[in-house]
């Protein structure tokens, strides 16, 4: 289900948080389209945190710390990377309003980025929204092989360690299926979301953000939930 945003000036970071709590999120038709519309899919993509799969080759890359992984150090650059055209993705739904609104959520501590680096070059990453014990993955990008995958592994370790219950991917792609993503009905998703929003919130920064988390440690945390 989608709904056109006819009162765009009224969308604020606070409105976004209320929308996420209701299972709704905004999108744009393209990066050049200034309008937004609300989306509430009939089928929702989720990655079960106790069923997250890491292929053996990727696990070796993670364990080697080939990429330097950081958290919340390059949010604007990460969302810009997600919005940039790439091979097989000439246009994206991330327009200026999306970047500004989620930048506002970042300032409020409700939006986070995980970045993968080679030297001083940002070569991959992802960003998403944290609310209660739910994390809503928004987008990811890479310019080096496996960079966004490594960022996702570190994200999942952080969510597990921080006591999160739900990783919402919005939709399911073949890429996400390889990590264990599956579709659930709107009714089932609502039940999962309600549970994740009840009680104490998750702590996204329970793993330190000011020092690197070794890949071996991230894999260890994920294995503890299997």
TrEMBL record:
Keyword presence, Repeat: no
InterPro entries: Acyl_CoA_acyltransferase (IPR016181), Leu/Phe-tRNA_Trfase (IPR004616), Leu/Phe-tRNA_Trfase_C (IPR042203), Leu/Phe-tRNA_Trfase_N (IPR042221)
Superkingdom, taxonomy of origin: Bacteria
Keywords annotated in UniProt: Acyltransferase, Cytoplasm, Transferase
Molecular function in Gene Ontology: leucyl-tRNA--protein transferase activity
First-level EC class: transferase
Catalytic reaction equation(s): L-phenylalanyl-tRNA(Phe) + an N-terminal L-alpha-aminoacyl-[protein] = an N-terminal L-phenylalanyl-L-alpha-aminoacyl-[protein] + tRNA(Phe); N-terminal L-arginyl-[protein] + L-leucyl-tRNA(Leu) = N-terminal L-leucyl-L-arginyl-[protein] + tRNA(Leu) + H(+); N-terminal L-lysyl-[protein] + L-leucyl-tRNA(Leu) = N-terminal L-leucyl-L-lysyl-[protein] + tRNA(Leu) + H(+)
GO annotation, cellular component aspect: cytoplasm
Gene3D superfamilies: Leucyl/phenylalanyl-tRNA-protein transferase, C-terminal domain (3.40.630.70), Leucyl/phenylalanyl-tRNA-protein transferase, N-terminal domain (3.30.70.3550)
Localisation: Cytoplasm
Function, in words: Functions in the N-end rule pathway of protein degradation where it conjugates Leu, Phe and, less efficiently, Met from aminoacyl-tRNAs to the N-termini of proteins containing an N-terminal arginine or lysine.
Name the UniProt record assigns to this protein: Leucyl/phenylalanyl-tRNA--protein transferase
Source species: Bradyrhizobium hipponense
């Amino acid at each position: 289900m989608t709904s056109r945003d006819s009162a765009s000036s009224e969308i604020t970071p606070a409105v976004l948080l209320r929308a996420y709590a209701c299972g709704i999120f905004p999108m744009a038709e393209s990066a050049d389209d200034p309008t937004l519309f609300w989306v509430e899919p009939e089928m929702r993509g989720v990655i079960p945190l106790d069923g997250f799969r890491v292929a053996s080759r990727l696990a070796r890359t993670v364990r080697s710390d080939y990429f330097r992984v950081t958290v919340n150090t390059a949010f604007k650059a990460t969302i810009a990377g997600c919005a940039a055209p790439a091979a097989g993705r000439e246009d994206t739904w991330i327009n200026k309003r999306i970047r500004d609104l989620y930048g506002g959520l970042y300032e409020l501590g409700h939006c986070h980025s995980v970045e993968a680096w080679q030297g001083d070059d940002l070569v991959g990453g992802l960003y998403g929204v944290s609310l209660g014990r739910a994390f809503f993955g928004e987008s990811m990008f890479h310019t080096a092989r496996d960079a966004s995958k490594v960022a996702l592994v570190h994200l999942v370790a952080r969510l597990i360690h921080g006591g999160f219950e739900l990783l919402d991917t919005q939709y399911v792609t073949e890429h996400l299926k390889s990590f264990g993503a599956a579709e659930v009905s709107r009714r089932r998703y609502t039940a999962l979301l309600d549970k994740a929003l009840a009680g104490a919130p998750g702590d996204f920064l329970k793993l330190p953000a000011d020092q690197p988390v070794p890949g071996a440690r991230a894999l260890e945390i994920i294995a503890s939930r299997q």
